[in-house]
Amino acid sequence: MRAIQHPSEAALALHAGGDLGPIAAWRCARHLQRCQACREEIAAFQGVRRMVADLPAMPEIPWSRLAAEMQANIRQGLADGECLGSQAARTVGWRRFTGLRAAAALATLTVVVGAGLMLRHPPAARNQTVLQATADGIQLSQGGEALGMKHDAAITNVSYSANAQGSIGESYVDPLTGDVTVTRVSW
Amino acid sequence: MVRTICGERAFRWVGIGVLSAAAGLAQETVLPSTAIRIDLPKDSPVALLTLDPRDSRFTARGGAIMVDLDALLTMRNTGAGRIHGITLRVVSQEVAMGGKASVCIPRLNIGPGEVFPVHIVQHLVRPTAFASGPLVQVSLDGVLFQDLSFYGPDQLHSRRDMTAWEMEAQRDREYFKRILARTGRTGLQQAILQEMDRPQLDRPMMLRTPAASSAALAAGERSERFAFVSFPDSPVEAVDGTAVVAGNQVRAPRILVRNRGTAAVRHVEIGWLVKDPSGREYLAASVPSSQPDLQLVAGKTAAFAQDAAMKLSRNGQPLDIRGMAGFVSQVEFDDGRVWVPSRQNLDETALRNVLPPSAETLRLTGLYRKGLDVLIAELNKP
Q1: Are A171 and A158 in contact (CB under 8 A)?
Q2: Is the ipTM of this complex over 0.85?
Q3: Which residue from A92, A171, B304, B310 has the fewest beta carbons nearer than 10 Å?
């Protein structure tokens, strides 16, 4: 019995993003029509792409560079996966996602999401001074530094305020003292 | 060969090594009370009785040092006046980027000799090791008394803030007392529930932008004009204003105001509202006059600008900003008096459905959560 020749993971990843050339895309699409396992793999890659796309909009991001670096990271991650994984013929089914192959897939996913997050906050942006409210307080951050005021995470009735001169504040009733407390952080 | 290096065993050992290193680097230490310094002037009307560092911790993780301060201060009113508010500055000299943090307790009612708590919870992150000396310094910025007199260096303009909160508190407390007298328990309950149901934007996020380029429009940006809400009794009117808008981002508000009263004004704040596609309004921020001393004499106009940029979202979704409105939210006169919009101003313009609750309303809604009778007992106090 002749073993099925599956497209490589790199080809599937690129196909998920519409980045394959026309002939390779046609061959890949033809294979996908009869291979459930590869369709699932494509769906997983598309899920990652959606997850990255759903990150909050940051107009200052160079999206073309992000896309190019994501592609490069996918390729690099898959190459690493090839290095870690077996070179033997692939077996179809759940066993493909166990052991080192699963670790490689996880590493690839981590690289892609990590790259997306890193590029979402490029070095220039990470050095930018940011004032923001978090789940349990308010903080000023720049580079690796942060200065913040916190409140008990159990408090749900928190009122936030922002001042365009460069400060944010929060008001809440402190359960420890019973008093209204107003904290503020500014640059 | 390559497969040998990248093999399963090597992979496991690398993982174990990384985890061990991370565990070794994360060292958590209890923060002693000596790491916190409390500076009070010699003639301060408050004194520190005890400092409980509670669950304060110092953690070294990787290349970062983290301080989680959770301290409970017990203070005594050592002056002759009744204290209605206190603001403490909380700073760390070790944070190179600067920044100021403060904790304020408005709506206190502490008589001479009485004791009160101040709870401070602060988080600091710094990439390198700390120098010797206290990690956190707490100092007094100001104390507001019942007669609106003030004590303190006022580096954070806490006099103005606490006075404004006191004015708002008197306004809102009177409002709820009138509601109780006019409509009874049911009316009061409805009014409180309305206060607890104000639409808010998601947690704010603000970026510092270079001042030089703030007025220029970048690709995708547009200049949006404010539509101002006018109050008949406001001593200052907003005449004109614009800001730069792009999607859910707003920045660089520029506002022109005119003093239409007779007293000189030294500070003005404009409430900045944004509209979504359905026309619903949300309070985005306040825009204060940028000059330290505005000196806006009667009949004169003054322009001011700010350069911060904000990203606005609602229920986790970026807010598509379709319009802006503004109103004069605070005026400080030369003599230290503060004007805030009246309840009538807010009701007649429907701003009361947009503005977040005042500190007093927050306190009263907190009491309501303990029971309607607790709230009524509080309102019946003289």
Answers
A1: yes
A2: yes
A3: A92
